[in-house]
Amino acid sequence: MKDIKSTLLERRSIRRYEREDIPAESLDFIYEAIRNTPTSYNGQQFSVIDVDDQSVKEKIYELTGQKQVKTCRHFFLFCADYNKITEIAEAKSIELPGFPLTADGVIVGVVDATLAMMNALTAAEACGLGTCPIGYARTAAPDAIARLMKLPPKVFVVCGLAIGVPREMPDIKPKQPKELMIFKNRYREDSMLPDLMAYDKEITKYNATRSGTKTDNDWAEHIISYYREAMSYNTLDALRRRGFDVRF
Ligand SMILES: Cc1cc2nc3c(=O)[nH]c(=O)nc-3n(C[C@H](O)[C@H](O)[C@H](O)COP(=O)(O)O)c2cc1C
Fold first, then answer.
1. Residue 96: DSSP 8-state
2. CA–CA separation, 21 vs 140, rounded Å?
3. Residue 105 Cα, ligand 1 centroid: separation in angstroms?
4. What is the rounded distance in angstroms from the CA atom of residue 11 to the CA atom of residue 87?
């Protein structure tokens, strides 16, 4: 098992995988890490679907266009889940308030599912495996993926996670310096623009010189182009079709 420092600081997203199986004890450790995720109220407002059937992974690949889904050994789908509490509330004749349909209810489900994903990712990385979160599992075809996964109402996909034995080891991406990310006691008050411009330059250089595929992408324009694309997903409508008619 890798130590915690290298597990966290040497992580990078892996997009090419060997076909090799994941050792049973590693998979078990990942499951246990998921189970011990801290969650709001201990409500555990999430579920995970471990997709290891190649034909199902290929269907998800066709829906998302993300090759990693096809080539990774396990593709996990992390879902916000109010189906389980609904079922037990009905059985125990407890009236369920409209909390899941509030903005905070949705955020709680998203946070719980995301923390579960991060626990799984860290456990997998500690076992020497490669990982890559896949947001397209939520955005690209939410209705088709919900049907394929037979999701009941009040459950929606938050994010996917590819896990497998790495076939590549790309350079680690430079991240924003501490001065742009971690503030002491209050939000930073002086202009961040010089640091932002320097970071933009650093990413541009990384993209142009990294091992593997090189690009002339900067940071700001490239990220904002993702925002433009993401605005076409109509995620609120997709959430409503999953039973989350968010009103408050
Ligand atoms: C919530 C989330 C969704 C992501 N979705 C995708 C995705 O759909 N496809 C992909 O190739 N990478 C995806 N990524 C990986 C990011 O592109 C990656 O984390 C980022 O570029 C930083 O690189 P690093 O992970 O190597 O440090 C996602 C990451 C996160 C946290």
1. P
2. 28
3. 25
4. 39
Whether the per-residue pLDDT at 247 is higher than 90: the answer is no
Contacts of 79 (CB under 8 A, 6+ apart): 46, 47, 48, 49, 113, 151, 155, 156, 157, 158
DSSP 186: S
Whether 78 lines ligand 1, by a CB cut-off of 6 Å, is no
Pocket flag, ligand 1, residue 158 (CB < 6 Å): no
Pairing verdict, β 46-51 and 155-164: unpaired
Residue with tokens 């246990």: 32
Residue whose tokens read 């992580």? 11
SS3 letters across 69-82: HHHCCEEEEEEEEC
Q: What is the pTM of this model?
A: 0.97
Confidence check: pLDDT of 71 > 90: yes
pLDDT in tens, 7-56: 999 999 999 999 999 999 999 999 999 999 999 999 999 999 999 999 99
CA of 83 to the centre of ligand 1 (A): 28
- Res. 215: pLDDT tops 80: yes
Angle at 20 between CA 70 and CA 77, to 5 degrees: 40
